[in-house]
Amino acid sequence: MNIKNLIIIAVALLALTGCKTTSENTLSYFRNLSDSPSGVMPQGTGYDIKIVPEDELSIIVSSSVPEATAMFNQPQSNLARRGEMSTQALPRLQSYIVSRDGEIVMPVIGRLNVAGKTTREVEQMIVARVSQTVKDPFVRVELLGFYINVMGEVKSPHRIHVDSERYTLLDALSAAGDLTEYGERSKVMVIREENGKQTYHRLNLADSNIFSSPYFYLQQNDVVYVEPNQIRIDNSKYNQNNAYKLTVVSTIVSAVSVIASLVIALTVK
Fold first, then answer.
1. Residue 223, CB half-sphere, CA atoms under 13 Å: how many?
2. What are the φ and ψ backbone dihedral angles of 29, each rounded to 5 degrees?
3. Handedness of CA 254, 259, 264, 265 (dihedral sign)
4. Which of 88, 146, 153, 180 could in theory staple to 220 by disulfide, Cβ–Cβ 3.0 to 4.6 A?
5. Element at 232 (helix H, strand E)
6. What is the pLDDT of residues 144-174, one digit of tens each?
7. CA–CA separation, 232 vs 71, rounded Å?
8. Model confidence, pTM
9. Helix (H/G/I), strand (E/B), else coil: 150
10. CA distance 140 to 126
């Protein structure tokens, strides 16, 4: 066998090696689950959202005698919630905006510090105060939504208005159209403000244990960022290099064109 044939065989082997594909499915979620058609997912807690400044709350106080609790409610209005245009014909009770100090001011009751508490805990606080003058009051406290941002390698990155206190990372990714094929499923970052500081936490969508993570349930102003995978990074570098080479070539061509024009002009004279 001569050297030429050896070179041909070597090139063929390299081509076959380069075309080798992996059997691992890198696009699927929860890859560590068994092949069983059913099972129990890891469970976690942490979806009881704590109230923070700038939250908007709806508070309704009632009892078997509505007239007895009317004074504890704000007057009705047909104003829309913050950030929305009013399309409601029927009036509703006005909402409360939590101040920077974490307080709201209710009729008769006065100031209440609600920051760091759940809506259930605020309900209990108000029931205790109203019970001093009204028998068996009923209090309903609702968080009128909050916002999170979904960015990075998703099909529709945008700011999402959440109207439920139980909202998960999967809900957010679904609302953003799911990850693109270039999204790194093992590195989905949740950026959150905790104790006055911006923190970040990476979650692995290939691991079903994310269901027990305290960052699986999202909170006010969370940012979900899906990092690009290596293919996207490599493609970006390739495109940048090509763009740079094209710019250099264009510059050289332009310079040669200018010099040629000058030479022609001088020759003609």
1. 11
2. -100, 160
3. positive
4. 146
5. helix 230-268
6. 989 999 999 999 999 999 988 899 999 999 9
7. 60
8. 0.69
9. strand
10. 9
Cα 30 from Cα 100, distance rounded (Å):
40
Instruction: Look at the block and give the residue holding tokens 């290099």.
Output: 241
Contact between residue 125 and residue 133 where contact means Cβ atoms under 8 Å apart:
no
How big is the chain, counted in residues?
269
Kindly report the number of other CB atoms within 10 A of residue 53's CB atom. Answer: 14
Provide the token pair at 209: 């244990």
> Tell me, what amino acid is at 174?
S
Residue environment code for 157-182, b if the CB has 16+ CB neighbours within 10 A, otherwise e: eeebebeebebebebbbebbeebeeb
Distance CA 212, CA 172 (A): 17
DSSP-derived secondary structure for 52-64: -TT-EEEEEEE-S
Closest C-alpha among 63, 66, 56 to residue 119 = 56
**How many other CB atoms are found less than 10 A from the CB of residue 80?**
12
**Alpha-carbon span 73 to 94, nearest angstrom:** 9
At 38, list the tokens. Answer: 């059913």
Phi/psi for 174 (5° steps) reads -65, -40
Over residues 96-114, mean pLDDT: 95
